[in-house]
Write a structure and sequence with these properties.
The complex is a heterodimer. Chain A is built from eleven helices and no strands. By secondary structure, chain A is mainly alpha-helical. In chain A, helix 4 (about 45-85) packs parallel to helix 11. In chain A, about 45% of the residues are buried. Chain B is globular. The chains are: A mainly alpha, B mainly alpha.
Chain lengths: ~260, ~220
Amino acid sequence: MGEGQKAPLLLCGRGLGPVAERREGEGIGQAKLMTPLERFVFSFFNADVAARYWPDILQGFLLTTYLGLAVIAAGIPLGLLLASIRSFRRLPLNALIVIFADVFRALPPLMVIIILFFAFPYVDISMNAFVATWIALTLVLAAFAEEIFWAGILSVPHGQLEAARALGLRRIHGLVFIVLPQAVRLAIPPLTNRMIAITKGTALGSVVALHEILNEASSAASNSGNATPMMMGAAAYLVLFVPFVLFGRWVETRFAWKR
Amino acid sequence: MDQVFQVFFNLAIIERVWPFLLAGLGMTALLSLLVVPLGLLGGLAVAMAHSRGHRRLNWLLIAYVDFFRAFPPLVLLVLIYFGVPFLGIDLPKFAAVGLAFFLNTSSYYGEIIRAGIESIPRGQMDAALSSGLRYRQAMLWVILPQALRNVLPDLIGNTVEVIKLTTIASVVALPELLNNARLAQSLTYNPSPIVLAAGIYLVILWPLVRLLSRLEHKSMALH
């Protein structure tokens, strides 16, 4: 971590402050003697700054990866569980699941994080930035996953389950061994896209001062008065997500989901 | 219970901050009305250029789309808002937000519309061309209406995502709904404004989300 404190991103305006102030100050004051190209390289691809801050960015990278995996590991099973429960069609339970799924698909994820982090402490439920972001993103992913799995379950003809029952399988076995394998296959392409979207949401954690890539990069940028850490942060995101996006593209053609 | 109600649904406080939240809602609406049509137009341009089938151009377009889909929108916004001043350009807040959103949403809409166009059999275009329509007319009157209808659930879904995404403008203190709610909360020491803002998002987006579920189930059932 660099010197200086890390601040949450929210509401700080251009309060990454030193950037704007130092524009006239010593750091970039020298830049006035440079050609425009040199100045650009100095501000955006500065080797000295990069050498100083890469450990911070790496730490942020690890935290983002860890958080993303934790969200997927909790959100997808929760969504599958809810969709499975819904398939038993018990009315009060179903209504609750539908409300849960609708609410967390309609609320902006950032809103959920803010509520968990800033509103819950008023009733003495406090959590740190990591937990708040993890819970918020997990709930949102679970809501979307539930809808996707449910659509998959609906698309398996009812006769499949009836046949399983006629063969003497219990309802739960019919669901697990007959319906779900077909439903899940259909759910894979939309699910992949949703997972990409939700893991990108980890950047929202920077708003509550979670030290993930974006937060590390912007505090390094304001501490150094130089935009290079931002470019490193951007590169870190590309390293993390371009393979993911390409994988999503491949999945879409592999499991082509014809309408 | 009563105490919880006083904390999260404090009517006196809600009454006081209501005009402020309404102003925020206005900004959210303005932002949405700007970025959704712009993104759609950008996406349409990307998809139509792609359907021309030039290999190099398509390679570029796919790179553009994948690049901006791989970037978390918040990162894009922060990069533009805090990075561009280093170039010596003073970018107004609203312009920075608009630019970040355009790059992101046009990629998503572009990808969706491209999938729609590709779902229309090649014969439709051939038939339209051989009946004397120009390429542009065929695209506009024959291909696009069918293509857009095929991907309507995805288009609505992405629009909901974009509206939800406008909350990230609060990070650069653009006075939209979430930003104003947070400010009101910190001024009144009470979370009611945040809860109310969440309620407003729910009221606006719930119908769209319901509609989306129905459309999605219909299209999956057709499978």
